[in-house]
Every structure is written in structure tokens, then in C-alpha cells.
Design goal:
Helices cover 48% and strands 10% of the residues. It is an alpha+beta fold and 428 residues long. It has a four-stranded antiparallel beta sheet with strand order 1-2-3-4, sandwiched between helices. Strand 5 and strand 6 (299-302) form a beta hairpin. The longest helix is centred in the first third of the chain and has 21 residues, at 7-27. The radius of gyration is 36 Å and the shape is elongated.
Length: 428
């Protein structure tokens, strides 16, 4: 069946005719001539008597309950049924306001939605949103992020910081009414005295509101963003940011230290030797598994989920490192290279530190500090470029542009660097 090219216009005219017919039947009169098409005026409304029902066209009515007072309504037909919905009292809702509401709901009708049902649903959603609290959204965000957060301490810090500083203030208001001034009430009291904590809280609140906006629970500009927002409300901190350095062993002492470490026949000692020779982090060492080792190429491939930067990292293995792995794996059948007794779980997070305190009580050093030892030795002795050293430590380059263009992980250069490191560590 062919559709007439003017069918949409015909439908519109027919709809207008039906509206006018309903208007005439409802009010008992059908306007004639040019005046039929004339909209209501304020003068006509003021001149009308109590009980009059005035039609503004296309189903918009004003029923006067007394002189110069009444109620607006929109009468329409949908799915073969007649409906009428209130648009508010007159004169609180003016003639122009009523027309704007009428156009809004008429647009829903033309799109096939029942305006009255749509408004009821919107009101229901508004009531639900009014009950939403900041702490509810924060909990949902943390829950959604848990799968990607492997550090239980980090999850606990997130939750506790928001419960301590943010929720008591922000939960006092519906989520959608919170503004930057409310965020200021949280941050201002601790901005100078606990600046690092305040910055972390600000960042976490920002992420909560970002999550709320994405889910459709918050309609406004994120109130916790810093740039061109909170920066105008909070003074720049004058505190000098303290950089915490893990206590480390001076690189010149390492060969003697390593020789003594090799005399300790425990899994923790072997794990610490492997950590020193690869310059990797504790978490990566503990979760090293058999199938991560490429024996042919002598490369340890650490999956992205174990890495701090969340990207796969290749570690070149020197011969003594390979020998250490082989001897360790010959002693058990577990998947983890350095397992706890029983073989089902990786080595305890505190095992290597406990070893240091027990076997080297006079040295104030930490496990993580051996990465600093490697960094200082590499910068002072071997003459390798900065990028090769940083990639060996699985650090992100501070220059994002350079990082974007440097696609290689410099494996060959790093292999040479780690051979020099191995040679130095095993110096007798």
C-alpha cells in the first residue's frame, strides 16, 4: 500500500479537528470563523465568570473556580481513550507557563507516550532520587570497583575516609541537591592541617559524583572537581609535599648482604633473592607462577592485573636468576613459585620483611627499599639511559607525550642492564 506524501500533514489536520471538536463538545460551544483559531488572552480570562471553561486550543483548558482563579488542564486522546491531566492552578501558573507545559506534554503524546503516565513515572523517579544519599552511591561505587582493586587496605581506606569526612555532611541532603559549597564544608576544616587527606577525600568524592552522573542519579556539574571550581574556593596549600622513601641498603653493601642471604635456606630467602635480582615489587614476586616464565626466551611475563600500572610487564631473566627459579621449583609442585607451606597460597606479604628483621636486625631496611638500591646503583655506575632504568622498575614515564611515542619496552637494553646488575650483586 502506498502512503500519500501528505499523510503526515493530513494526520496533523485531522488531529487538530478532533481537538477542536472535543473542545466544542466539552464547553458546549464551537467557535466559528476567524475567532475559532484565536488563542486565549489575559483579558478574556479576566472577563470570564466563575464556572467558565476556556479553551486555548489543542486540548489546553482553563476552568475558572472563581473570578480570576482556576485550574489548567490538558485534555487529549491516546490509544482510543480520553484523558485529562492537571497542569496547575491559575494565576500561579500563568497563561504562558500553561502553554509551555502544554507543548511539553503534547510532544510526549505525539511521540506515542501517555503524558499523564509519563509524568507519574517521572514523579516516582524523583521521589526515589530524593531518597538517595551520598553514602549509598559511595558504597555502590566501591562495590563496583572491588574486582579491580587487589589491595584490601586500599578499599578500607576509601570507605573509611568517606565515612569519616564526607558522609556525615553530604547525607544530610538529597544527593541531587548537593553543591560545591557542601564539598567546601568537608574540605575547609582539614585543608591546612591534613592537606594530603583532604586531597584524597576530594578526589574520592569527585569519583563518587562522576559515578552518580554516569548512572543518571545526579544532573549537575560535578561539585567536587578541582579545576575552575574548588580551586576558587580553597587556597593553595603552602605545605611542602613530603616524599616518603623506603629505608634501603646502600648499593655498595649489597654484594656482602646478598652472599649472607644465600646462606638462609628458606622460601622467603629465595623470594627475596629473586626480588633483588629482578628489581620487582613484593606483590609481583609473591604471585609469580610457573606458567608466567618463558624458559626459552628467559623472560618472566607478569600479567597486567598484578602490575601497579595495570599493563603487562616483561622481565629479562639472567642465568643465575633462572638457576634460582629452577632450584626453587624442584622443591615443590605448587603453581606459585614461592608458596606458603601447603602450596595452595602465595607467600605471606610479611614473610620477606620478617626475614630481614630476623637475619639482619642491625640494618634498618625494607623489602621495597631494594628497588631504590637498584635505582641508585644504575644511576651511579652503569651509564644506562633514564628510560631503560625506569622501564626496568616498571615505572610510567612522567612525560606522557614521550610515553605515547615510545612503543618499545626496551627489553634488549634492559637485558644488558640486568646482566650488569647480576654481575655486581654476585661480586665476591
Amino acid at each position: 500500500m502506498r502512503v500519500h506524501p501528505m499523510s503526515s500533514d493530513v494526520t496533523y489536520v485531522w488531529g487538530y479537528f478532533v481537538d477542536q471538536l472535543w473542545a466544542g463538545l466539552w464547553t458546549g460551544t464551537i467557535r466559528k470563523g476567524k475567532k475559532d483559531m484565536t488563542k486565549l488572552t489575559v483579558k478574556e480570562i479576566k472577563a470570564a465568570s466563575k464556572g467558565a471553561r476556556l479553551h486555548d486550543g489543542h486540548g489546553l483548558y482553563l476552568t475558572l473556580t472563581s473570578t480570576d482563579r482556576g485550574k489548567w488542564s490538558y485534555r487529549y486522546r491516546i490509544n482510543g481513550l480520553s484523558r485529562e491531566m492537571g497542569l496547575g492552578p491559575y494565576p500561579k501558573v500563568s497563561l504562558s507557563d500553561a502553554r509551555a507545559l502544554h507543548i511539553k506534554y503534547q510532544a510526549h503524546k505525539l511521540q506515542g507516550r501517555d503524558p499523564c503516565a509519563y509524568r507519574i513515572e517521572k514523579e516516582k523517579i524523583a521521589i526515589q532520587r530524593a531518597r538517595l544519599k551520598f553514602s549509598d552511591i559511595a558504597e555502590r561505587l566501591i562495590e563496583s570497583k572491588k574486582a579491580g582493586w587487589h589491595n584490601e587496605k586500599h578499599i578500607k581506606q576509601w570507605s573509611q575516609s568517606l565515612q569519616t569526612y564526607a558522609s556525615p555532611i553530604l547525607d544530610a541532603k538529597p544527593l541531587n541537591t548537593i553543591t560545591s559549597r557542601d564539598i567546601l564544608k568537608i574540605l575547609q576544616p582539614i585543608w591546612a592541617t591534613k592537606h594530603e587527606t583532604a586531597r584524597r577525600v576530594q578526589q574520592r568524592i569527585k569519583k563518587v559524583f562522576g559515578f552518580a552522573k554516569t548512572m543518571g542519579w545526579y544532573d549537575h556539574y560535578n561539585p567536587a572537581v578541582w579545576d575552575d571550581n574548588l580551586e576558587h574556593l580553597l587556597a593553595p596549600s603552602r605545605q611542602v609535599k613530603r616524599v616518603f622513601h623506603h629505608p634501603s641498603l646502600d648499593w655498595s653493601e649489597l654484594p656482602g648482604f646478598f652472599k649472607k642471604l644465600q646462606t638462609v635456606e628458606t622460601i622467603a630467602s629465595k623470594a627475596l633473592q629473586f626480588l633483588i635480582l629482578t628489581a620487582c615489587r613484593t606483590h609481583e614476586i609473591r604471585h609469580c607462577e610457573r606458567d608466567q616464565i618463558n624458559w626459552t626466551d628467559k623472560v618472566w611475563i607478569i600479567p597486567a592485573e598484578l602490575m601497579k600500572a595495570r599493563r603487562t610487564h616483561r622481565v629479562p631473566l639472567c642465568q643465575s636468576t633462572v638457576t634460582l627459579l629452577e632450584s626453587t621449583l624442584m622443591g615443590h609442585n605448587a603453581d606459585y613459585v614461592f608458596p606458603r607451606p601447603g602450596g595452595m597460597h602465595p607467600l605471606s606479604n610479611m614473610a620477606m620483611l620478617t626475614l630481614l628483621k630476623r637475619e639482619f636486625p642491625r640494618k634498618s631496611i625494607t623489602v621495597h627499599g631494594f628497588r631504590s638500591t637498584f635505582r641508585e646503583w644504575a644511576a651511579s655506575n652503569c651509564g644506562y639511559d633514564h628510560d631503560t632504568i625506569e622501564f626496568s622498575l616498571a615505572h610510567k614515564l612522567p612525560d606522557r607525550t614521550k610515553e605515547a611515542y615510545l612503543r618499545s619496552d626496551l627489553l634488549d637494553k634492559r637485558r644488558m642492564l640486568m646482566k650488569d646488575w647480576e654481575k655486581f650483586v654476585l661480586t665476591n
